[in-house]
Amino acid sequence: MFSLADQLALSRSRPAGFDYMRIVLAATIICLHSANVTLGLDRAMEIVGHLRMLNAMILALFFALSGFLVTASLLRCKSLISFIGLRVLRIAPALVVETMLSAIIIGPIFTAMPLAQYFADSKFHVYFLNIVGHIHFELPGVFLHNPVPDLVNAQLWTVPYELWCYVILALLAVTTICFNRVLYLGFLVFAQLGLACYDIYHWNELFIHLRPHLLVFCFLLGVGFYLWRDRVPFNRATCLFALLLCTAGMASGRCDAIFAAPAAYVACYLGLMNPRRSWIVSSGDYSYGMYLYEFVIQQCIAAFGPSVQYWYLNVLISLPIAFGVAVASWHLVEKLALRLRGQLERFEAAVLSRISIVRFSRRSPRPIELGATLGSSASG
């Protein structure tokens, strides 16, 4: 059987599929949000409600691929110091800059309030709590006359749940559950049964996207697929069947928990594909920057009045701007922050030399057996 591990080995653990997926998903979110910022939430919900499956799938894919990739990073870490430190270096710097730019530059430009009153308002002060994951969506007097008034950064609603993913994975690492894949599989089965029962109990509640707790579950499923990557087939027919299953199931918005696993498999399959890299993915990781800045950019465009408040114009204008800002964010903020990894590793080594108990407790990992289709060179 040709497995996910085999495909990962063929790409030397650097498949381009994940990079392309993140860019495509970020661009798709911009397209979906264009309806919100130009039509208003009520009208947009009527339209986007018919695309419920697309909304649910985008979030499921995002969180599942994150779980798969973060697990690879976790297994290379020696302790929580490097695991948490790397997550902070990847997420916090760009979020800090985006929060400050929104509050200090964009807010004063688009507020309807006098600047002295703007800077004295409590909404301005609490907005900086976004930096630590306590999300606030409004700045005083900003975008008051937009089709979606007040909202500055609606896309950040997923940040707390992403942080919960890392907290839960850290706890699973400390308890060694995620270092024993049999135990982890039992944990997933237990979670699956509990979430399925929850969905059945809340049968009458419909969401335009996945319920927040299912975002975390998709992340944990991505973790599971990485741990069991040598036993999960990398198969096109299986992917197509899983895609058909989860899209049909998620279209209704009922019992999403049952279809989260097929969606996570689709994310892993597509991510492990390894097409030729273009400059878009070889020059940097721009998806996070696109995610951070897209909504505020779209709101700025909508603020210029009815002449530009058409969803297709919003997409045509905001997409290249968001990509350009993401490129700047990567090269001027995110990439520079990641260069601190060496200092983080030296700090961790110094701590572990004195307090070895904080080191992850785990058995030496059993070598992953690659499929026969890779031949003797791969196994060598």
The end-to-end span amounts to 18 Å
Q: Total number of helical segments? A: 17
Average pLDDT, rounded to a whole number, is 89
What's the total number of strands? 0
Task: Give me the secondary-structure category.
Answer: mainly alpha
Contiguous runs where pLDDT drops below 50 for at least 5 residues = 375-380
Q: Nearest-angstrom radius of gyration?
A: 22 Å
Q: Percentage of helical residues? A: 55-70%
Following the backbone from N to C, one meets helices and strands in this order, namely: HHHHHHHHHHHHHHHHH
Which percent band covers the strand fraction? under 5%
Could you walk me through the main structural features you see in this protein, from its secondary elements to its overall organization?
This protein is mostly helical and 380 residues long. The protein is 68% helix and 0% strand. The protein has helices spanning 4-10, 17-39, 41-48, 52-76, 80-110, 115-120, 122-126, 159-174, 181-201, 212-227, 236-250, 256-272, 279-282, 287-302, 311-338, 341-354, 375-379. Helix 2 (17-39) packs parallel to helix 14, helix 2 (17-39) crosses helix 15 and helix 5 (80-110) crosses helix 15. The longest helix is centred in the N-terminal third of the chain and has 31 residues, at 80-110. It starts with a helix and ends with a helix.
